[in-house]
Amino acid sequence: MAERVVLAYSGGLDTSVGIGWLKDATGKEVVALAVDVGQGGEDMDDIRQRALDCGAVEAIVVDARDEFASDYLMPSLKANALYQKRYPLVSALSRPLISKHLARVARELGADSVAHGCTGKGNDQVRFEAAVAALAPELTSIAPVRDLALTRDKAIVYANKHNLPIRQSAANPYSIDKNVWGRAVETGFLEDPWNAPIEDLYEYTQDPNVNREADEIVITFERGIPVALDGVAYSPLAIVEELNAVAGKHGVGRIDVVEDRLVGIKSREVYEAPAAIALIAAHEALEALTLERDLGRYKRGVEAEWANLVYDGLWFSSLKRSLDVFIDDTQRYVSGEIRLLLQGGRAVVTGQKSAESLYDFDLATYDTGDTFDQSLSKGFIEIWSLPSKISARREASSN
C-alpha cells in the first residue's frame, strides 16, 4: 500500500487544492480529516464528499463539538483566558484538538505524516506542528501553502484547471476561521488598522447600536463550570450555543485588536465571541466572590501565562499541564449563580450569590450591626507601613 498523509481538511480553497498538491509533491495518498468544532455553515457530509471529489483516497469526519466544549473551552473559561487581555483564544483552542485527531488517525492508518493548510506567517502552523510533535513525534508535518509555495492565486488557477468543487474566489478578500467559541476575521481592508470594521464583517453578533430590549440571564456554576441557564441544566456545548444566540443578539463579544503573533509580527484581527466574553465576565465575578484575596491575585498572573502558552501552541506542554492542576484546584469553591444583563454590546453582572461566598455582610456593612472592629486598624497600619517608614528615614539621612 502506498504511503499516506493525513490532511486537516476544512473544505476551503487551500486545503481542497492541497490534496492534489500533496499527492503531486510527495507521491503519497491523501486522507482528508474534517473535524467539527461547531463552525456551522456547510454540512460536514458535503465537506467529506468535496474532499473525495478533490482526490482524497479517504475522507473522515469527526464530530468533536462536545469534546471541544468540555475539554478545551471549559479549561479556558476556568483560566479566564484572554490573550493580551482581549482575545479569548478562538482559533488557538481548536488547533490542539484537531491535532489530537490528526495524530490519532495517522497512527490508526499507518500514515507517516500529517498536513495542514497554514501559511508561514501565522500562528496556526506552530500550533498544529507543535501539538503533533508532542503527541506523535514520529510523524512528519507538511504545510503545502508554506512548504510548496501554494499561493492563493495559484490555488485558484489550479482549482479551475482541475475543475475542483470549491466555492472560493479571488473576490473574497477575508481570511475567516470560526468555531463554537467565536469567529476570527483578518486580511483585506482590515490590514490597515485605521480602517474601522464594517457591519458586513460580522456573523455571530448583531449591531450593538440598534436599540433592543435588554435580556437578563442567570448562569449557574459548579466548580468553575457553567451547568445551567435560568435554572435549566445544559451541557457545556449547549450553554455556549445558547449564550452565543442571546449575547450575540446584543452585539456582545466584538473585539478589534492588534495582537502580537508568535512569529514576531503584529496582526490586526477582528473577533466576535459572544458566549466567551459573557461567560468570562460571569466567571470572574463569581471568583471575586469566592476566592481568597491572595489566591485571586496570584491566579491572575497564572491566567496570563496560561493564555500565552495556548496562544503559542503549547497546549500539550509540561508547564501548561502543571498550570491546569493549579487552576483546577482554585475552582473548588467557585460555585453559585451570576445574573447578567445583556444589552448594547455589553454583558454586565447585576447579581451574584454563592453558598461558598467569602463576602460577610456583617463585616462589610457601614450600618448598625457592623462587626468589624475598626479600633484594630490603627495598629495594623502602623505595622504594615513600618518598612516604608524605615526606608524613608534612610533616604532622608543619605541626602
From TrEMBL:
Pfam families: Arginosuc_syn_C (PF20979), Arginosuc_synth (PF00764). L-citrulline binds at residues 87, 123, 127, 175, 259, 271. Residues 4-165 form the Arginosuccinate synthase-like N-terminal domain. Pathway: Amino-acid biosynthesis; L-arginine biosynthesis; L-arginine from L-ornithine and carbamoyl phosphate: step 2/3. It comes from the Bacteria. Coiled coil: none annotated. One of its GO terms (biological process) is urea cycle. It catalyses: L-citrulline + L-aspartate + ATP = 2-(N(omega)-L-arginino)succinate + AMP + diphosphate + H(+). L-aspartate binds at residues 119, 123-124. It is found in: Cytoplasm. Its EC number is 6.3.4.5. Its main location: cytoplasm. InterPro entries: Arginosuc_syn_C, Arginosuc_syn_N, Arginosuc_synth, Arginosuc_synth_CS, Arginosuc_synth_type_1_subfam, AS_cat/multimer_dom_body, Rossmann-like_a/b/a_fold. The keyword Calcium does not apply. Belongs to the argininosuccinate synthase family. Type 1 subfamily. This is Argininosuccinate synthase. It comes from Lacisediminihabitans profunda. The gene is argG.
